[in-house]
Design a protein that fits this description.
25% of the residues lie in helices and 28% in strands. It is an alpha+beta fold. The chain folds into 3 domains: 66 residues, 2-Layer Sandwich (Uridine Diphospho-n-acetylenolpyruvylglucosamine Reductase, domain 2); 113 residues, Uridine Diphospho-n-acetylenolpyruvylglucosamine Reductase, domain 3 (2-Layer Sandwich); 103 residues, UDP-N-acetylenolpyruvoylglucosamine reductase, C-terminal domain (Uridine Diphospho-n-acetylenolpyruvylglucosamine Reductase, domain 1, Alpha-Beta Complex), CATH 3.90.78. The strands form 6 sheets. A 5-stranded antiparallel β-sheet has the order 6-7-12-10-11. The two termini are 25 Å apart. It binds flavin-adenine dinucleotide and uridine-diphosphate-2(N-acetylglucosaminyl) butyric acid.
Length: 337
């Protein structure tokens, strides 16, 4: 394993922040982790585990070691008449994994098509889209404990999945490195098209009885029409989470803002933050190279040379404005480094 100094990170974060790391190492085997964690020089500096860099915002250069997870491989570890249990190494690109499942006719992940990033990061915020969350097809994961160097198995309950949240963003934050994730996939897929827009897209494809390949095609089409391609415009997807408010708060907001978009959630009503930001007048706004995507106000974008601070300043102005207009607090989804 090679430890490199002053390593450029611009192409390793989808916001396209032009920053560098003091040290950088690619982790291609479990042995690499033992070696690096046994090194006293490494322990003296902070470190950051990096996947596809699609849910991160770097404020500036990273004064520590970036551990870039490059573990690869996937295998069927068990099978019965209904399910296939597929284990993917943490460094497998997420959308390649989804495409592989769809090609094999295994259902479950197709609504999560085209989400950037790696398989190993998918449980961290319990990725979700178009009516499905990772937890719905999660079986277990293997994680390397930084303190003991032992590998621990986490089942679904251990992971404490919630909306854009898990044990690894709370109590377990910074303590484990996910090595692999095992998914439970359906041999007889259940087609889920309830999420707004998906059914309409399938109808426009003339698809009255869709299969998982059709769902994948429709999800990819919708995503490409709304979300900026990070290869062209820097972004990290939704910058904020959709806020969950008590039912009573929602009813009051509905009186003053009849068009408000919300749907029931376990803790109350989940409001569409994109709608709130849009209604507060920010959609398409630009200040220097920091901006708000013209087609989806929940996505903050880097038009080229924005810094992490530029994006954070814009994010604070949006938070204040939404608070003033609606009395609702927005919490970032993106990990600020
Ligand atoms: P990174 O950004 O590299 O890391 C994210 C966090 O996980 C960091 O804290 C990092 O330290 C930690 N981490 C990464 N790998 C490991 C590991 N192996 N072990 C321990 N910790 C680790 N998200 C959704 O949920 N739904 C969407 O629809 C969606 N759409 C998006 C669209 C676009 C255009 C973009 C740019 C992003 C979108 N996202 C979406 C956000 C993002 O793609 C996901 O959160 C994704 O899972 C992040 O994966 P990553 O590998 O890039 O993680
Ligand atoms: N809306 C507006 N104006 C906007 C943006 C959205 O009015 O500028 C309205 C839409 O018209 C729609 C509603 O808000 O009625 C919801 O919008 P959308 O369907 O685009 O979904 P979202 O709630 O903004 C969430 C996730 C996305 C995920 C999509 C699809 C969060 C924070 N975001 O976005 O995830 O892809 O649903 O399921 O939950 C991500 O996490 O990075 C991400 C992109």
């Amino acid at each position: 394993m090679l430890l490199q100094e002053s390593y450029p990170l611009k192409h390793l974060n989808t916001f396209g922040m032009d920053v560098s790391a003091r040290y950088y190492a690619e982790i291609t085997s479990r042995d690499d982790l033992s070696v690096i964690f046994d090194d006293p020089g490494f322990a003296a500096n902070p470190h950051l585990v990096l996947g596809g860099g699609s849910n991160l915002l770097f404020r500036g250069n990273y004064d520590g070691t970036i551990l870039h997870i490059r573990l690869r491989g996937k295998e069927i570890v068990a099978e019965n008449k209904d399910n296939v249990f597929l284990k993917a190494a943490a460094g497998e690109p997420w959308d390649e994994l989804v495409a592989f499942c769809v090609e094999n006719g295994w259902g479950g992940l197709e609504n999560l098509s085209l989400i950037p990033g790696q398989a190993g990061s998918s449980p961290i915020q319990n990725i979700g889209a178009y009516g499905v969350e990772l937890k719905d097809h999660f079986h277990s994961l293997e994680a390397w404990c930084k303190k003991t160097g032992e590998v621990k198995i986490f089942n679904r309950e251990d992971c404490r999945f919630a909306y854009r949240n898990s044990f690894f963003k709370g109590e377990g934050k910074g303590k484990y490195i996910i090595l692999s994730v095992t998914f439970c996939l359906d041999k007889n897929p259940v087609i889920r098209t309830e999420y707004g827009g998906l059914m309409g897209e399938l109808e426009s494809m003339d698809c009255s009885s869709p299969d998982i390949a059709d769902v994948r095609t429709a999800v990819c089409k919708i995503r490409k029409s709304k979300l900026p391609d990070p290869e062209i415009t820097g972004n990290a997807g939704s910058f904020f989470k959709n806020p969950v408010v008590p039912e009573k708060t929602y009813r009051q907001l509905k009186k003053t803002h009849p068009g408000i978009f919300a749907f029931p959630d376990s803790g109350g009503m989940k409001l569409a933050a994109g709608w709130l930001i849009d209604q507060a007048g920010w959609k398409g706004y630009r200040d220097g190279d920091a901006g708000v995507h013209p087609k989806q106000a929940l996505v903050l974008i880097n038009h080229g040379e924005a810094t992490g601070t530029d994006i954070l300043n814009l994010a604070s102005r949006i938070q204040e404005s939404v608070k003033k207009h609606f009395g609702v607090a927005l919490e970032p989804e993106v990990n600020i480094v």
